[in-house]
């Protein structure tokens, strides 16, 4: 919604509220004033009518009392009647004048027919004996006309009532009073209702209903109870009226003054209409003003908005009206400054973008060139890809090889470390006594005996070192597969016996029995005897040192195309977990390490030698049941057969 | 001449044991020998050496077990270790505690052995 419309609506709403409130207030006050005026008018009429009625009746009473005075002066009956007639003719409102004795009997009456009749039960007689009383507005059967009866006591000089004088008064005068309607407008009416609820005055609207129509409503009820006031009610015609009600106590009759509601409140309606018209005029004027005012606020904003839209769409040259000297003016000023800045920025941007455009064009050219290149490259790369797949397979293969090499290298590295630790221990141990003894001998001349002992010690350890170095060299040859064997046809039995004889001193020292079994052995086999010796010295040495049994069995036998050798001891056996590592280089069993200071070379060398001969070596052992080393060499070796043939 | 000190040398290698004994006796020490931890402990029940020269790597009881045994017996005899293993100086400092007062690597200079033994006894 536009700001102008918002403002107009706001103004109109405010205007309507204000107008409505002022209209209602003025109407309420106006209505009250009119109503008050009406009521006071009704009241004053009521007061006037009461006064007129009372004055009329008092005048009649006075006249009646005057007639008593006449009667007192002239005592005779005839004279009295004459006087009464005189009085009636003087006062045309009095229709009958009569005297009643204390027994209630009519003595003299201006109506002869009434004389002698008994009125002792009449209220006017009973009350009239005491004081002047008015019995108004009842329908007297005797008169056949409704009327008012006035009664007053006639007293003697002592003040005692001797007679009651009564007069009947015609209602015409009252009707005249009641019908007089000055100040009551078109529909106004005054009327009287007696205590029997009969309408007793003539109706303006319906003829001849007096003393025939009874009226029963709350107004009459309240009025007969002595209350008075103003009220809107439905009158005997069932027309809505506003009226005043009041009880005339002496006459015991309700006086009602009323005006038709419609007429009574015509000024109020008129007032409402007037107010409405004025309101409408005011509202129209105010709306007109509101629109003008809203325009004066909204227009600069609208202008600013339009300018902003133009600037927003890129028309930075848009001029902005800055003539307003309020906040909107400030805003317009700021806005135009902003526009100016924008203009500058835009120019910069234009420069920048034209540069950018040039650059983009250049790059696009470059790109299209490189795209062509890329296409060529893509074709090339397709070819390369195919080639790569082939290479990849090769690489995969190479990697597998590398993996294996790495594993081997790692093993080698471990071997190197093990070798260093082995060397440091195994080489230094024999070096220690050698060095120590040599130092001693250098320092002083030792006695001969001791010198010899020292030299023996040096020699022993030197030999030990020598053996160690040889073993290490052997191993290095085995490991690099450079071990050279020099096979010749040899008698295995002979070779083995030589080995045993070499070992005999040690065997004897340890008190071990040695048994041999070479029954089914070929006469000659093709072996390197020196290496063969090495193997068996090692195996027998192990059996002595590690087996620690009481017996060693050495056997050899032909089996299929093989010759199988066994070196068996009845010692304590080798734990199963150590068996698998037995032939590994530098492997030293825990116990051997401590007891025999083995280097972990012997069995590795044995294995190397046997394998160089094309044979196999393995071990079987059970704890506490001894250990057996098995060794097989092939017999049907081509070389062996050839040589054999040559020999033959 | 003052009373000569008693040294117990423990080594499983007979030649080393004997050589050490020779060198120390040349320097006027009394020397007893043992070939492993077990026999050393047995010897200690009879003799009270001023110092023990102990080979680190021997069959039977390990060095740690030997030291624990000595601790149990509240024997505070100073011990010099003999070993073929080479250790860094920093490691040596860490190792030397309790009964252990020094550390000699094999092979050794005879003079050096004597000097260290004397120093070990003074401690």
Name the features.
heterodimer, A: 648 residues, alpha+beta, Beta-Lactamase, Helix Hairpins, 4 domains, 16 strands, rod-shaped, B: 123 residues, alpha/beta, Rossmann fold, five-stranded parallel β-sheet, 5 strands, 21% strand
Give your account of this protein's structure.
The complex is a heterodimer of chains A (648) and B (123). Chain A has 648 residues and is α+β, with helices and mostly antiparallel strands. Chain A has helices spanning 3-73, 77-90, 123-128, 172-179, 218-224, 261-264, 266-312, 327-443, 448-479, 492-509, 529-547, 576-579, 590-595, 602-612, 638-647, and strands at residues 94-101, 106-109, 133-140, 145-155, 161-169, 189-194, 229-234, 240-248, 253-260, 488-490, 513-517, 525-527, 551-559, 562-569, 616-621, 627-634. A 5-stranded antiparallel sheet of chain A has the order 2-1-5-4-3. In chain A, strands 11-13-14-16-15 form a 5-stranded mixed sheet. A 4-stranded antiparallel sheet of chain A has the order 6-9-8-7. In chain A, helix 1 (3-73) runs antiparallel to helix 7 and helix 9 (448-479) packs across helix 14. Chain A is rod-shaped, with a radius of gyration of 82 Å. Chain B is an alpha/beta fold and 123 residues long. Chain B has one domain: Rossmann fold (3-Layer(aba) Sandwich), CATH 3.40.50. In chain B, 41% of the residues lie in helices and 21% in strands. Chain B has 5 helices and 5 strands. In chain B, strands 2-1-3-4-5 form a 5-stranded parallel sheet. In chain B, strand 1, helix 1 (14-26) and strand 2 (30-34) form a beta-alpha-beta unit. The longest helix of chain B has 13 residues, at 14-26. Chain B is globular and about 35 Å long. Chain B starts with 5 loop residues before the first strand and ends with a helix. The model of chain B has no long low-confidence stretch (mean pLDDT 86). The interface between A and B is medium-sized, with 25 and 22 residues.
């Amino acid at each position: 919604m536009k700001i102008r419309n918002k403002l107009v609506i706001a103004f109109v709403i405010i205007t309507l509220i204000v107008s409505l409130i002022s209209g209602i207030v003025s109407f309420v006050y106006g209505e009250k004033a009119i109503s008050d005026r009406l009521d006071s008018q009704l009241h004053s009429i009521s007061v006037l009518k009461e006064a007129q009625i009372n004055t009329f009746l008092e005048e009649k009473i006075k006249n009646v009392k005057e007639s008593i005075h006449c009667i007192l002066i002239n005592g005779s009956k005839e004279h009295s009647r004459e006087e009464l007639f005189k009085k009636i003719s003087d006062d045309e409102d009095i229709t009958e004048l009569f005297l009643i004795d204390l027994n209630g009997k009519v003595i003299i009456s201006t109506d002869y027919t009434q004389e002698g009749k008994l009125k002792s039960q009449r209220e006017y007689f009973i009350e009239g004996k005491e004081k002047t009383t008015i019995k108004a507005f009842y329908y007297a059967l005797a008169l056949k006309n409704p009327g008012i009866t006035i009664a007053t006591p006639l007293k003697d000089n002592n003040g005692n009532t001797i007679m009651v004088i009564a007069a009947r008064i015609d209602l015409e005068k009252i009707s005249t009073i009641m019908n007089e309607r000055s100040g009551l407008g078109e529909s106004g009416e005054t009327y009287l209702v007696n205590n029997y609820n009969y309408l007793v005055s003539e109706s303006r609207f319906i003829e001849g209903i007096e003393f025939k129509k009874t009226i029963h409503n709350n107004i009459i009820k309240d009025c007969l109870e002595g209350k008075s006031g103003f009220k809107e009610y439905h009158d005997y015609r069932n027309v809505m009226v506003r009226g005043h009600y009041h009880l005339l106590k002496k006459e015991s009759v309700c006086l009602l003054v009323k005006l038709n509601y419609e007429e009574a409140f015509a000024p109020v309606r008129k007032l409402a209409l007037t107010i409405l018209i004025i309101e409408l005029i005011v509202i129209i004027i105010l709306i007109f003003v509101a629109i003008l005012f809203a325009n004066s606020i909204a227009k600069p904003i609208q202008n600013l908005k339009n300018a902003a839209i133009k600037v927003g769409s890129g028309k930075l040259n848009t001029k902005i009206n800055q003539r307003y000297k309020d906040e909107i003016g400030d805003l317009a000023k700021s806005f135009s400054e902003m526009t100016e800045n924008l203009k500058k920025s835009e120019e910069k941007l234009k420069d920048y973008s034209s540069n950018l455009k040039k650059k983009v064009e250049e790059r696009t050219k470059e790109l299209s060139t490189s795209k062509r290149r890329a296409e060529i490259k893509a074709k090339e790369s397709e070819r390369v890809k195919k080639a790569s797949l082939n290479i990849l397979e090769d690489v995969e293969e190479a990697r597998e090889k590398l993996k294996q090499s790495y594993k081997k290298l790692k093993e080698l590295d471990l071997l190197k470390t093990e070798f260093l630790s082995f060397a440091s221990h195994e080489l230094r141990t024999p070096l220690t006594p050698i060095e120590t003894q040599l130092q001693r001998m250098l320092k002083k001349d030792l006695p001969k005996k001791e010198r010899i002992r020292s030299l023996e010690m040096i020699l022993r350890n030197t030999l030990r070192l020598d053996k160690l170095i040889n073993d290490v060299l052997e191993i290095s040859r085995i490991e690099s597969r450079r071990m050279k064997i020099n096979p010749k046809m040899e008698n295995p039995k002979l070779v083995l016996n030589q080995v045993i004889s070499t070992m005999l001193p040690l065997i004897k020292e340890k008190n071990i029995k040695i048994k041999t079994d070479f029954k089914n052995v070929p006469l000659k086999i093709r072996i390197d005897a020196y290496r063969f010796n090495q193997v068996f010295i090692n195996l027998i040495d192990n059996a002595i040192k590690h087996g620690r049994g009481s017996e060693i069995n050495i056997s050899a036998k032909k089996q299929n195309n093989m010759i199988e050798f066994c070196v068996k001891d009845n010692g304590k056996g080798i734990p199963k977990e150590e068996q698998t590592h037995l032939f590994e280089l530098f492997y030293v069993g825990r116990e051997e390490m401590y007891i025999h200071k083995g280097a972990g070379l012997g069995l590795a060398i044995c294995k190397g030698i046997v394998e160089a001969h094309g044979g196999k070596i393995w071990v079987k052992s059970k704890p506490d049941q001894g250990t057996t080393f098995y060794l097989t060499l092939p017999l049907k070796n081509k070389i062996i057969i050839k040589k054999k043939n040559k020999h033959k | 001449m003052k009373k000569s000190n008693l040294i117990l040398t423990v080594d499983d290698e007979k030649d080393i044991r004997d050589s050490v004994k020779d060198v120390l006796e040349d320097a006027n020490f009394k020397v007893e020998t043992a070939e492993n931890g077990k026999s050393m402990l047995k010897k200690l029940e009879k003799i009270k050496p001023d110092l023990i020269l102990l080979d680190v790597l021997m069959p039977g009881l390990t060095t740690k077990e030997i030291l624990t045994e000595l601790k149990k017996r509240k024997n505070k005899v100073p011990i010099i270790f003999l070993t073929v293993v080479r250790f860094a100086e920093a490691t040596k400092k860490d190792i030397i505690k309790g009964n252990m007062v020094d550390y000699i690597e094999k092979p050794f200079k005879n003079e050096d052995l004597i000097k260290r033994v004397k120093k070990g006894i003074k401690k």
